[in-house]
Write the structure tokens for this entry.
Amino acid sequence: MGILPIRIAGDPVLREKAKKVRTIDASVQKLIDDMIDTMRSAPGVGLAAPQVGQSLRVVVIETPDDGLLVLINPEVVKSSGERRVMEGCLSVPGYQAEITRSRQVTVKAQDRTGKEIRIKATDSLLAQALEHEIDHINGILYIDYLESADELIPVRPSIDDQDAREAEVSLA
């Protein structure tokens, strides 16, 4: 297990539609373990494989209320309602913005053993994270929902957060 470098907005892998995982082999299991370590170290609520340079449909999410979820080939099968939420992203360090997400989300995926699972989340951090991470595997960043870079709100970076000080965000 290890901590992987997180790709920052502008890296082409973040704009690719990730490839479907056909076989959950040892390399995918290692990627999942490394992604969990990386997400926790960041710290973050979720991480998608493209954020660590792997164009695969693999997502990890961990919330205080729902625990750790590993999702392979996840897709939103149903969503409804709208709500405004503050959102940030490990690949867009130093910023956050208010965007619209669904109130209720139903996702189907496989767990790390290949078993089919369904997750339903309503008005929660999990619902938001599911949409956010599935966007990542489809080449979408939350900043794509903004009309202008003026909507980005700088967040105070930590003293040694060089990435946040140097990040330049473009809505192009």
In short: Residues 159-172 have pLDDT under 50 and may be disordered. The chain has one domain: 12-156. DSSP finds three helices and eight strands in the chain. Helices lie at 26-41, 125-137, 162-166.
